[in-house]
Specification:
The chain is built from 14 helices and 16 strands. The protein is α/β, with parallel strands linked by helices and 395 residues long. It has two domains: 95 residues, Urease, subunit C, domain 1, CATH 2.30.40.10; 284 residues, Alpha-Beta Barrel (TIM Barrel). The strands form three sheets. An eight-stranded parallel β-sheet has the order 6-7-8-9-10-11-12-13. Strand 10, helix 7 and strand 11 form a beta-alpha-beta unit. The chain is globular, with a radius of gyration of 21 Å.
């Protein structure tokens, strides 16, 4: 049954995410949850209803392609300690694992729901959500289930990723032993439950080796899960090249990426998902966004909102501003990386993150008149109105 057609009009900046190059005022026809037509208002087809967005900046709904919402506990003391010189290690993740395991279903579901609502209120219409603070089969399945339950009552679109290989739990004898459990026990359980679309591994110094990651991700691919990777965040381990070899949809972080890694990504179809927030909090190197873009790599920007290295939810407007002010991107490139780039990182090219005929009708009108506001007002730009699947939603 049709929901009826809607015509959105405006005379302000329209990013699709490319700037609309037709005459103003422009119009967008939405029908059956999809964008059905885009062009000048003078040529617009008839619609059942019309909304005038005036001079507002309009973009596709933001796509946050890397988050960790399924956790309990608090670790702000670690951020202060790192600023004072303490090194980053997996110990902090294990603090969160203990708190998350101790949390009830109701508590964890409520925490996840609050984080999703904050993201929605910031203009995010599609969000990737990882497990990874359970680190045992039942706990990982629980986290993925609760992500799904929290999302079920909200209009935001959620993509779930199994991250059983986030750190080595205290009960495991070694990373290699635990990797075998992830590959041989957890992945079959996750796929049997139908609770994830992707599998991820934290492949880095002090976490999982490339050999461990390959074992896990080959098992995931065989089981029908998409592959993504935390790669080259803390050290240059060759994880990026492994992601390419395994056909990963995305390699994330990349703070330590060198010229050889940039060239390797440019020759592949792997998306580079960059996460400036934790790099700042950890006082680390920044990922080489400019080099990647100049090499022709598809770049996504995401928040990496998590328990211990970047705790800000509703931060995607800030992330766009950081892309423009710190990573050497233009503001238009940063908006594109947070929309179409994020969609590419989730295997959703052409369906999300774009205002184009046949794409899902997810759109944000901002309380701003130009995308430069993301750079000028770091983190303070907020939506005035949001549509998901052609339906207006509230945060």
């Amino acid at each position: 049954m049709s929901d009826g057609s809607l015509l959105l009009t405006g005379h302000g900046r329209l990013l699709t995410p490319r700037p609309f190059d037709g005459p103003d005022p422009w119009a967008i026809l939405v029908r059956d949850g999809l964008f059905a037509w885009i062009g000048p208002l003078t040529d617009a087809p008839a619609a059942d209803s019309t909304v005038d967005l005036g001079a507002a900046l309009v973009t596709p709904g933001l796509v946050d392609a890397h988050t960790h919402p399924a956790f309990a506990g608090e670790r702000s003391d670690e951020a202060a300690a790192r600023i004072e010189g303490a090194p980053y290690s997996g110990g902090g993740i294990l603090r969160t694992v203990a708190a998350t395991r101790a949390a009830s279903d109701d508590e964890l579901r409520s925490l996840i729901g609050a984080r999703l609502r904050a993201s929605l209120a910031s203009g995010v219409t599609t969000i990737e959500c990882k497990s990874g603070y359970g680190l045992a089969t039942d706990e990982e399945i629980r986290s993925l289930r609760l992500i799904g339950e929290a999302a079920a009552g909200l209009p935001i679109r959620v993509v779930r990723t199994f991250l059983g290989a986030h750190a080595v739990p205290p009960e495991a004898a070694s990373a290699a032993e635990y990797a075998a459990v992830v590959a041989e026990e957890m992945i079959p359980a996750v796929t049997a439950a139908g609770s994830a679309e992707f599998c991820d591994v934290f492949c880095d110094r002090g976490f999982f080796s490339p050999a461990d990651a390959e074992r896990i991700l080959r098992a995931a691919a065989t089981a029908g899960l998409g592959v993504r990777m935390h790669a080259d965040q803390l050290a240059r381990t060759g994880a990026t090249e492994l992601a390419i070899r395994l056909g990963a949809v995305s390699a994330d972080h990349l703070e330590q990426l060198d010229d050889g890694g940039v060239a390797a990504l440019a020759a592949s179809g792997v998306v580079a998902t960059l996460l400036p927030g934790p790099a700042l909090v950890m006082r680390d190197r920044l990922p080489p966004a400019r080099a990647l873009l100049d090499a022709g790599v598809t770049v996504a920007l995401a928040s990496d909102a998590n328990a211990g290295t970047f705790g800000a939810w509703a931060a995607m407007p800030l992330v766009i501003g950081l892309g423009a002010t710190l990573l050497g991107m233009t503001v238009a490139e940063a908006v594109g990386a947070a929309t179409a780039g994020g969609a590419a990182a989730l295997g959703l090219t052409g369906r999300r993150g774009v205002i184009g005929v046949g794409a899902d009708a997810d759109l944000v009108a901002w309380d701003a008149e130009h995308e430069g506001a993301f750079a000028l007002n770091l983190g303070a730009v907020r939506p005035s109105r949001t549509w998901i699947g052609g339906h207006e939603v509230s945060g």
